[in-house]
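Lab meeting tomorrow. Please check the following:
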Amino acid sequence: MNNSSNGAFLLLNRNIRAQTYCSFFIIFLLLVSCTTTQERQLEQASRQYKAHRDYASLAVIAKHLTKGMVQSKVTDWLGEPDYSPIAGQYYYSSDRYETVLFGKQEMQIPVGLVIDYLDEQGELTGQVQSFWLGHIGE
């Protein structure tokens, strides 16, 4: 290879590396932006839910819950539960009600989030074992 073709090869190689670095940087910025946006949405939903107990905010928070999440983090997001029928199970209510039919009678049932910290043996774990967003009541 002569000097001019060797120089062109080095220049092309540098351009490819620069494009690769630039692509990785753009992907990094997009990932950081998405994470930051999700965190902001979660923080806003947490503040809104604590202030108004609204269903829309509760639904946003529920999407961020995962099995194994520590109870203190859940409490940070939701505040104190509205009701606990048994130790380790907590109900978070919302402003939403749905009509359901019991026999021939229609009833308004609250919609909320139920979080269970009990394992299969009924022992408290301090970590989310299950949760669901839906009708709550006994």
Remarks:
- The chain has a mean pLDDT of 85.
- The longest strand covers residues 105-116.
